Fold this protein.
Amino acid sequence: MAIMKKKYPNIKKILIPSFDGFTDKNNWYLSDTSWNTGRSIVTYEANLLIKYAKEGKIENLNIKGLSKVLKK
């Protein structure tokens, strides 16, 4: 979404959440921080969003609660 907002600001975007069993909206935080768990994947991607926003490669999404995700 962040790439689309940056490259194609006038195109309507539709987001579809993941339903893979371990990175779902309601369960990703239940796992530990070991490699390839829901929590480790979400944390990794959150850090990439911050990095790319600081580099100006994507829009700054100002995700509510992102700092809480990274502290868990």
Remarks:
- The radius of gyration is 13 Å.
- The helical segments are 2-7, 38-54, 66-71.
